[in-house]
Amino acid sequence: MNKTPYPDVWPDIDTKLYNRSVKLFNTVKNMLSVKLDLHADPQVLGGDIFLFNHFSRFETFIPQFLIYEQTGAYSCAIASGEFFTEDNVLSRYLKHVGVFPHNHERLFPLLAGQILRGRKVIIFPEGGMVKDRRVIDKRGHYSIYSRITGNRRKLHTGPAVLGQGVETFKAAIRYAHNQNDIALLRQWKDALQIDSVDQLIAVANKPTLLVPANITFYPIRSSENLLFKSVELFSDGLSLRQSEELLIEGNIMLKNTDMDIRMGAPVNPCWTWDWRTRYLMDKVVPEINTIDDVFTLNSSPKNWQQRLLGRYFIKNAHCSRDRYMEGIYANVTINLSHLAATLIMYYIGQGQAHIEKNKFYSILYIAIKHLQNNTVIHLHRSLLNPDDYSDLFKAGNKRFDYFICAAKEAGLIKEDENNYHFLPKLCVESDFDTIRLENPIAVYNNEAAPLRTVRDTLIDAIAECSNADKNKLASWHFEDECRTLAWEKQAYSKPLFNDISHEETAIADPSPFFIQPPALNHVEEPALSHAEGGAANCCGVLLIHGLLASPAELRAYAEYLVKQGYTVLAVRLKGHGTSPYALRDQSWEDWYGCVQRGFNILKVHCPRIFVAGFSTGGALALKLAAEQPPEMIGVIAVSVPLKFVNPAFMLVPLLHGTNKLVGWVSAFEGVKPFIDSKPEHPSINYRNAPVRALYELRLLIAQLDELLPQVSMPALIMYGDEDPIVSAKGAPVIMDKLGSKHKRLQAIKSPRHGILMENIDGAWGVIDGFLNELSK
């Protein structure tokens, strides 16, 4: 590279200015819509030279500030020399926050000195933005497009050269220490501004590590944004390249983009050193007097040993470069758009012009489930949280819909009622500066290409989709219900929710569960394998718990049913068993979705199903009965809260409306977001009932009133005659409105609400009679 004269001594980092910059960065970060997520082991953050891929200009400011937040270490970076050609505010600022021009004559010695002082170095070894994300050539080798030459090339070896240089100088320090050359050690200590000779020795004994890291943005958007419109308004005209970068990067900053920064396993720059390199090191190290001597071994060798060692260093640097290239691209955070794009490009390669929609969704889902168990790749959180991918089969997944809309707008695909059709533009080679606008599918496909596992998994999923195992799919769907619980627990375990969470006493396992009788299968949750012998004739019971509770309240009853030969699945309604805050964020439609999914899982194993629900679960059971699924042969609704004993519950809609109003006009959470529920079973139920949840229950009951006449299947309605929560007057109303010819109303003598959990007054036996009559 062309060198430009700069002062030999470069300004040190102004720590006060650096700290102010970090604070400013945090302020700006909070204002932007980009969500930064750093995935790094604490030990990895102890590395020295951090290497990142380069997709946008925006990302170049991020790593050093994140590393400072995590470790407190200052970082240096490299910028184009054009920023330093004039002495202005920007160039002075860059100099004092650790930025060095790429064409400085002493760039490597200066950076090496910073590393020896405990500073980190940030490098983007691609040397420019790789907009097409194409890092694998047609032969399967790593390479990127060079705008300067117009050809493909490998990444720069500079980081490997720098790492080897630092290790060589450390060897010189260790040699001087062994020779007891105190004068030279003190000279180096002073030159490096290190506090003591002992500290210098400690630095020399620490290995120098290169840390490959990947930055993945998701999603990539190309629509107009405020930044683009503002610049366009005040400029005389933007070039195509400028317009493209403003569109892409403006959307990254302003439109809810995830920025996953994932750091891989460190690379020791000396990992390829063999006996010959180490032999020459022993000969050359005694001749090193300054850091600059290390980096002139190849350009200005003083003898044949230095010349040969310099050549070995170049060879070794290429090997290290190949290793960190692989590390950078292996740490892509795979998302749904990667999977969809890879599948589309595979089909095109197979000569197919379209794909049937339902098959597309099924293949993606199957691939996701397999990739979740793959320890080689890293999945975006949306492929780990079922809330973000389980609705693929409904053709209503927001992330997938955005991918399809962007592809349609770019003229890459079109769709009809049943198929997606691939258009010729998908196969056209796009310009490097427009590919992110013209062919985002190619960009996603290129980004995932280094991870061969992704493509192979999708190909296997195609074959598996053609012979789909319903039992396996049911097992996956049940696993998703368990995953949802884990994600919900994680999301609502933050200190933000401690004001309510610390008051909760529920300790019972809130997990959904699936149990089969021994005669069919000795398997219990979370596995849902095919039951041998008699499974086709078994009866299943779907259990739905009540508001504020969890499946734990029905566990004993489920085990009782299993002993009688029934296969039982108990669903968990979203928001339950984690935090009252989680329940506050759910709607009754969310609860009903859990019921529907549970029913669909159970019907794979049982052609005849009873649905039994307690309290709110009873209302949900009746709603499902109104839809008359063919596998459902009877409904049991216990203590349905059509009416409440406490008249204050009638004020819930008013209180909820007031909470919403207060939320709109202030940052306060509402006048009364939670009500103390005084639960009968504090080890299972929430103590704090969200007003929003009670309001959602009222909405459910209001809809149920219209649906009861549509229930035509056999029904058992049970209630406690002295229930302290649910009024006994509601059960006869339900009974009268039911459209069923075969229906029964049964009162249970009880002053408590939990008549099903506690089997009060022989409640289980009453249900036995109903089940036995219909399951013959």
Summarize it.
It contains 29 helices and 23 strands. With 776 residues, the protein is of the alpha/beta class. Helix 5 crosses helix 7 and helix 20 (470-491) runs antiparallel to helix 24 (588-605).
Describe this structure in words.
The protein is 44% helix and 13% strand. The strands form 6 sheets. The protein has a 7-stranded mixed sheet with strand order 1-9-8-2-5-3-4, sandwiched between helices. A 7-stranded mixed sheet has the order 15-17-16-18-19-22-23, with helices on both faces. It has a 3-stranded antiparallel sheet with strand order 11-14-13. A hairpin with a 3-residue loop joins strand 13 (413-415) and strand 14. The radius of gyration is 33 Å and the shape is elongated. Residues 225-229, 521-527, 529-536 and 654-670 have low confidence and may be disordered.
N- to C-terminal separation? 86 Å
Mean pLDDT: 89
Strand neighbour order, sheet with most strands? 1-9-8-2-5-3-4
> What best-fitting shape do the alpha-carbon axes yield?
elongated
What structural class is derived from the secondary structure elements? Answer: alpha/beta
For the secondary structure, the number of strands is 23
Poorly predicted spans:
225-229, 521-527, 529-536, 654-670
What portion of the residues fall into strands of 2 or more residues? Answer: 5-15%
Main sheet properties: 7 strands, mixed
Radius of gyration: 33 Å
**How many helices does DSSP assign?**
29
